[in-house]
Specification:
Order of helices and strands: HHHHHHHHHEHHEEHEHEEHHHHEHEHHH
Shape: globular
CATH superfamily of the largest domain: Malonyl-CoA decarboxylase, oligemerization domain
Helix content: 40-55%
Structural class: alpha+beta
Number of strands: 8
Strand order of the largest sheet: 1-2-3-4-5
CATH class of the largest domain: Mainly Alpha
Radius of gyration: 26 Å
Length: about 450
């Protein structure tokens, strides 16, 4: 495996050197000189030249200069270039109108194809041609990350973002992705990126990373793409245990090298991180989890249970909105005193207060996952949408599963176990995608019928 990977790296390096040579020759062909810093107008002019140029070598040179020039711009100038691309490279409206009128006058497959060809924005072809340059794919991923940061403030960029999503969905489809297990012996450059890109439970340096990689009951898998070399796209951290955990701290704080006392029966996916901001919205996670499940089953046949220990990042904000309403569909009047404890510092570390809040939150959390909806009719929680859409089952709610400052801030400590039952994944996925039905355990559903018993505990605290 290592020899094959080294061979692939050598091939990529050779091709990269070849493209650099082509770019240098192409630069001479079109009279470009190395160097001076490019401004917004220069980059837009070169983009026009790239779109009108048909030569491969000169196209590589132009693409390379555009991307390197863009990377060196100030933040304000990057915004101007992105808007220039968005507004200056749309579909050819006159040709599109003529093609549409011809189709309406006499519909047939040939005229339909002409409409389709004219309707594609020139931006998409611009991005394809920019991708000729060596290292261009990663540069374009970074460009889209810039675009996403600016899209809300500049509506003109929305259509350009759709172009990126359309192209990246093809360029990064499952057939091109390579699954690799990351180990403590993996290259330091990759390990540094794992530390930097971890988005769920921050990795506090090398010792912390070692605790997540070195023990026999820990795994970390990542998807890579040949065009991005050693840049992980998404990665998942796994703990092999003998039961389904309800809290994250025991998993994160386990000492490095600790031997498991029992044979593992459960694979716990406790952190999934998208590593590239520029690939937001491009789905990798569903493929990643299913592939890792298959690999783990082959490696450890005794594994019978596959679950997550997931955060609920939107719960605290949602609950704050519900508490601010004169009357909430999700909060009972008798819950109010218990929920008021959320406003007191240190409540999660005081046994009586924590228990009162936990009792009050459990039925509210069940309603949050099973009944609360976005205006489009989807579950409010983004992590829930991800796992339910992948065919998982909402299995258990853990009201104080994460007592870290971040966990308390984003969800009042709430964590969730989603269970992946291999025989049910497709059925659950279809029911959720087609009808919005949520697969949930009877234990979670029963919480909806219970009323708050927090008032009994509050009486003992007063």
């Amino acid at each position: 495996m290592a020899r094959r990977r080294a061979g692939a790296t050598a091939i990529v390096s050779f091709l990269g050197d070849l493209l650099l040579n082509i770019a240098d020759r192409g630069r001479a062909l079109v009279g470009l000189r190395r160097a001076a810093a490019l401004g917004v107008a220069d980059i837009l002019r070169l983009a026009d030249a790239l779109m009108s140029n048909r030569g491969e070598a000169s196209g590589v040179a132009l693409a390379r200069d555009i991307l390197s020039g863009y990377a060196a711009l100030s933040e304000a100038d990057k915004t101007a270039v992105l808007i220039g691309f968005a507004e200056g490279f749309g579909p050819p409206m006159d040709r599109l109108k003529a093609a549409a009128e011809a189709f309406l006058a006499e519909p047939d497959p040939r005229r339909a194809a002409a409409v389709f060809a004219c309707a594609e924005p020139r931006r998409q072809e611009l991005v394809r041609r920019l991708n000729l340059a060596p290292g261009a794919t990663y540069a374009l991923v970074l460009m889209r990350a810039d675009l996403l940061e600016r899209k809300a403030a500049h509506p003109a960029l929305a259509a350009f973002d759709e172009d990126f999503v359309h192209l990246f969905s093809a360029w990064f489809n499952r057939g091109f992705l390579v699954l690799r297990q990351i180990q403590w012996s993996s290259p330091a450059s990759i390990l540094e990126k794992i530390i930097r890109y971890e988005a769920v439970h921050a990795i506090a340096g090398w010792d912390d990373l070692r605790r997540r990689l070195e023990p026999q009951d820990r795994r970390l898998f990542a998807f890579f793409h040949p065009a991005l070399a050693d840049e992980p796209l998404i990665f998942v951290e796994v703990a092999l245990t003998d039961s389904v955990p309800a809290a994250i701290q025991p998993l994160l704080d386990a000492p490095s090298g600790q031997a498991a006392t029992k044979a593992p029966t459960t694979a716990v996916f406790y952190s999934i991180s998208n590593a590239q901001k520029g690939l937001a919205g491009i789905s990798f996670g569903n493929f990643l989890i299913k592939q890792v499940v298959e690999d783990l089953k082959r490696e450890t046949p005794g594994l019978t249970t596959f679950v997550t220990l997931s955060p609920a990042p939107g719960f605290a904000a949602w609950l704050a909105e519900e508490r601010a309403k004169p009357a909430s569909d999700f909060i009972l009047p008798e819950d109010a005193r218990a929920l008021a404890l959320l406003d007191k510092p240190g409540w999660a570390h005081k046994s009586g207060a924590a228990e009162a809040v936990e009792r009050a939150l459990a039925p509210i959390a069940a309603a949050y996952f099973l009944r609360a909806r976005t205006p489009s009719g989807k579950p409010v929680d983004p992590v829930a949408r991800f796992h339910l859409g992948n065919g998982a089952r909402l299995d258990r709610l853990n009201p104080l599963g994460d007592r870290s400052p971040r966990g308390l801030a984003q969800s009042h400590g709430l964590m969730v176990n989603y269970r992946y039952e291999l025989a049910e994944i497709e059925q659950n996925h279809e029911a959720f995608a087609a009808r919005g039905e949520i697969a949930a355990s009877s234990a979670v559903r029963k919480l909806l019928r219970g009323k708050s018993v927090a008032s009994d505990l509050l009486a003992s605290l007063s």
